[in-house]
Amino acid sequence: MAQPLMKEAQCIASIEEPARAFAAVNVAFDSPARRLQQELERAMSGAGEQRWSARRSLGFIVLTNGAVWIALIWTIRAALS
User: Is the pLDDT of residue 27 over 60?
Assistant: First the structure.
């Protein structure tokens, strides 16, 4: 009868070796997912820069969109004339 190439304990050890090596590596490295989680945590906590009030935000949106529409209409009129 042929002899096995490795004993059962050696087989298990060789299978577990990459897992042990991976566990030994510091997994707290800087990854895009971890950075996003940290940024979201800061944003949701309310800490950080000041936000605009709702009235100021609405005013900015209305003025900006109004300016864009006026420029668009003016450009179309100039192109058609």
Answer: no
